[in-house]
Outer membrane biogenesis protein BamB
Amino acid sequence: MSACSRRSFLLGMALAAGAGRSSRAAILRPGPLLWSRKVAMGEGDWPSREVVPAADSKQLYIPLIDRVLAIDLQTGEPAWPTLREKDDGAIYRGPASSQGLPSRAVTSAIVRDGRLLTLTGAISDAPASVRDFTHFPTLSAFDVGGSEGKLLWTQGLEGTLAASGWRAAALPALVGDSVWLPVVNQQRSMRPGLAELDPSNGSLRATVLMPVSPDGTANWAGNAPVSVGGRLFCRRIDGTVVAVSLADRRVEWRTEPRAARQTLKHAGIVPGAGMVHVATPDGRIEAIDTDDGQVRWTFDLEEENPQVCGLSGDQLICAGRRIWALDAATGAPRGRWGFVDTPPLGSVAIEGRAVAWSTERELVALDSSNGAVVGRDELAQSWNLTGGDTWSMGGRLVLVGGNRISVFRADRE
């Protein structure tokens, strides 16, 4: 970091601290552990798993490789008990196999207006030519408002999407009255595309063909598209950001590859201040104008494979071996906090000024306006847990790590 950058960094921290002293709004902090349960993530020895859960005010929905669980958010028991001898809360069970496992398994859930949308199976970040087809990704919709998790429709190995040659290649997004799903076409040399589906019945409305990367690869990065300003923004495995107009379903612009031949570890996209913010494997944070795809500012965290986590007010929260706060509009550093010897593991939860994450042994929360630690719990010593992805949902803090799902009460002071 240059001398000028260091002076700006220290000034930003001082301003942030001053702002924090004048704020009196309640802030979230980790409360007591409500429950924790061991969850078999799926058959086989998966080297890497990423589970993106969802929650409403009562239930926590956990998408796994071969099933979807609905768990009471308060008690950890099945949301809708059955007469099965070993009731794990599953409302859906799909095919599973331990043969030809890909390098990475990613599953996700979205809940809105009493409808649950899940992606199960395996999304691999291996090159398209060597992807395994044993665990075919399945997109499913459930009624979780008026009925006890009734299955409404699926798009999997035997759906109309697959019949047209397409298969899921990244996590879905629910935008307005459409489901948008990054896909690849098995009949067109794995040509990438975006599929638009009707959320009421899962029917295929349209597909938007994507340009192939300069090196000939077609891989999506795995993250869900992000919608802002009438556009859909997607990330490719080489770091390319693609903008698609929702009005006429066409590609408006794309950036040049950022990752060379590296695989992105964190491919999230965070919109804010008329830009989308992304991280690069070499440690840079870039802000890209949503209108023309031009890079408006860059800040080097000097961290390997950082992640953009979200917005806390007008601050962009990023994570590497520490937690960073940058001005979302200018990239000016506001703060840098954390513990170098115990870096954050997985995703970081943000709610208002509160930023919460877990290390291998601790659950930590701080006030992003001044960097003050507002909660710090010894996971290993107090609860015999290990860290992982941290989520703020349903008025709780949810920790997914070490083949366990744990839920903490979220207090506000």
